Amino acid sequence: MRSSAIIVAAAATLAGLASASPAHKFDKHATHIAYTYPNGTFTKPFDVVTNGKAQQLPSNNIVSEVFVAPPFDGRRYVLTSCSFQAPSNKSLGAVSIRKPTTVPVNPPAAIGYVTCNSN
């Protein structure tokens, strides 16, 4: 009997802690971008505001691949389209993704601006 009372008290304490902790918040408005250079090095992911204007996000060097992770709404990734421009604002192409993906930049080029949009 005594052990069941301890278990009930422990369960009540754990339930109280779980309800007191804040819920995890997912960023519904950011796409994450990281650059990979031809020598195999890469950058930390940058946050790109989704459904905003072109964001200046210079690669500072020639890029061979771009890692793109679309926004996550707590249940699934959101279909997102990103376009990339050179520092001169010349288009380098666009990609539509529904899950984190590495996209080749062909031919490799410097990136100056990124624009991402989703539904």
Automatic annotation (TrEMBL):
<keyword id="KW-0732">Signal</keyword>
<protein>
    <recommendedName>
        <fullName>Ubiquitin 3 binding protein But2 C-terminal domain-containing protein</fullName>
    </recommendedName>
</protein>
<feature type="signal peptide">
    <location>
        <begin position="1"/>
        <end position="20"/>
    </location>
</feature>
